């Protein structure tokens, strides 16, 4: 017997979670199924909309001003500006006061771990004091055993890029003895507990760390740390460091595993719980059962410990990710969407999938399903493949989210619209 719900969302990343919440708010009974851990924990935690045009122009000051010029088939062209705004509004509701940027339509420039700046529409409040548009000088601080963040190198690159402030970098020993290669969560959990800082009179790690950093200050009024300032209590960690140092403190977003990404993931899954969405993880969706006419999906099949179990629904949302997340798969025979076998346009010659120039125009970066304006995947001749299936996020094609800096925005816009349409159709 099939497990039944009105809307089934496949995928637990930003697009899938957004779609599930949107469908639930439209009044539907929703279940979300995902196999792997969401990619949120591997991302910076920054929420972009559009940082660069498909032609590479940018960084863009106003992403909304560029939406009307995007090529036909781009996800933003398919869903329209209203969907982009609705997606951001839903995110603002998720994030509440833990993120900033909703006061303006302009992109903020946020320094990242490599000394680059990323144009982004929403950023963690913990990064707010570090914006590149701020002309105050900044001290960047790294830790001896945290090799992922080289503070002096990041500062040098910011200066070379023409940042409107002077950046300096310093590397200090963390005030607790650590293994040779500690995880970023180790730093965060020690700062959360705030115990064991033997250098400080009250045993506070936060105070001991501030004392070490203070010796490197040379008139700077803000200090940037790698984004490891707490997991459970990041606001308290940052507030204590600011109090001890007497300057503003900010986090510099880092790569995987990402504490800002983990914090965001927790807030998003809390939103699913509040909306009553049922969540199942760890079991892959491996196929589907077509309806009698073949133009609609009756159920998907889920592999549960070697046995396939049907999950029936009135509406389905596909949010399984792109090539990285295996929502789009490829081999020598071609490129495919592995669950529903939705059409994925691609050149037959594999050598046309990429450019010889490492920074050239790589076709594979735009592989994905091609939806109509209601986000229903279309076949090679443009006909909708399934009336009750919608797609959202990186599984969509016709855009290069890494080059455009548009991944989060597309996930929010398409997830919100796909979920709402699915929920309203039940």
UniProtKB/TrEMBL annotation:
<dbReference type="GO" id="GO:0004368">
    <property type="term" value="F:glycerol-3-phosphate dehydrogenase (quinone) activity"/>
</dbReference>
<dbReference type="InterPro" id="IPR003953">
    <property type="entry name" value="FAD-dep_OxRdtase_2_FAD-bd"/>
</dbReference>
<keyword id="KW-0288">FMN</keyword>
<dbReference type="InterPro" id="IPR050315">
    <property type="entry name" value="FAD-oxidoreductase_2"/>
</dbReference>
<dbReference type="GO" id="GO:0009331">
    <property type="term" value="C:glycerol-3-phosphate dehydrogenase (FAD) complex"/>
</dbReference>
<keyword id="KW-0560">Oxidoreductase</keyword>
<dbReference type="Pfam" id="PF00890">
    <property type="entry name" value="FAD_binding_2"/>
</dbReference>
<keyword id="KW-0285">Flavoprotein</keyword>
<feature type="domain" description="FAD-dependent oxidoreductase 2 FAD-binding">
    <location>
        <begin position="7"/>
        <end position="410"/>
    </location>
</feature>
<dbReference type="InterPro" id="IPR009158">
    <property type="entry name" value="G3P_DH_GlpB_su"/>
</dbReference>
<dbReference type="InterPro" id="IPR036188">
    <property type="entry name" value="FAD/NAD-bd_sf"/>
</dbReference>
<protein>
    <submittedName>
        <fullName>Glycerol 3-phosphate dehydrogenase (Quinone) subunit B</fullName>
    </submittedName>
</protein>
């Amino acid at each position: 017997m099939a497990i039944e719900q009105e809307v089934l969302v496949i995928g637990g990343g930003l697009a899938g979670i957004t779609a599930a919440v949107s469908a639930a708010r439209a009044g539907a009974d929703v279940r979300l199924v995902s196999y792997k851990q969401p990619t949120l924990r591997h991302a910076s935690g920054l929420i972009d909309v559009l940082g660069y045009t498909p032609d590479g122009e940018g960084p863009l000051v106003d992403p909304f001003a560029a939406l009307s010029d995007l090529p036909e088939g781009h996800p933003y062209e398919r869903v329209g500006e209203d969907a982009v705004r609705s997606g951001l509004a839903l995110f603002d509701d998720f994030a509440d006061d833990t993120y900033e940027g909703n006061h303006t339509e302009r992109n903020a420039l946020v320094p990242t771990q490599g000394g680059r700046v990323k144009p982004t529409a929403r950023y963690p409040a913990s990064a707010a004091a570090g914006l590149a548009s701020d002309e105050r000088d900044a001290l960047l601080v790294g830790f001896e055993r945290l090799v992922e963040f080289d503070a002096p190198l990041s500062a040098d690159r910011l200066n070379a890029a023409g940042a409107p402030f002077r950046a300096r970098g310093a590397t200090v020993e963390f005030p607790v003895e650590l293994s040779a290669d500690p995880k970023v969560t180790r730093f965060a959990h020690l700062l959360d507990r705030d115990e064991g800082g033997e250098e400080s009179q009250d045993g506070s790690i936060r105070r001991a760390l501030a004392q070490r950093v203070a010796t490197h200050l040379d008139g700077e009024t803000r200090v940037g740390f790698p984004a490891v300032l707490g997991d459970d209590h990041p606001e308290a960690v940052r507030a204590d460091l600011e109090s001890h140092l007497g300057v503003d403190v900010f986090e510099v977003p880092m790569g995987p595993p990402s504490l800002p990404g983990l914090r965001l993931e927790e807030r998003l899954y809390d939103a699913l719980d509040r909306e009553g969405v049922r969540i199942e993880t760890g079991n892959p969706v491996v196929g589907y059962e077509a309806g009698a006419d073949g133009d609609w999906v009756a159920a998907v099949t889920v592999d549960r410990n070697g046995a396939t179990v049907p999950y029936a629904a009135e509406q389905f949302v596909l949010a399984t990710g792109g090539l990285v997340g295996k929502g789009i798969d490829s081999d020598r025979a071609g490129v495919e969407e592995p669950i529903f076998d939705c059409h994925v346009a691609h050149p037959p010659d594999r050598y046309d999938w990429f450019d010889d120039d490492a920074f050239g125009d790589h076709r594979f970066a735009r592989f994905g399903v091609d939806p109509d304006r209601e986000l229903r995947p279309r076949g090679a001749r443009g006909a909708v493949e399934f009336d009750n299936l919608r797609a959202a996020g990186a599984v969509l094609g016709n855009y290069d989210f890494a080059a455009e800096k548009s991944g989060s925005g597309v996930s929010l816009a398409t997830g919100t619209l796909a979920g709402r349409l699915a929920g309203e159709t039940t």
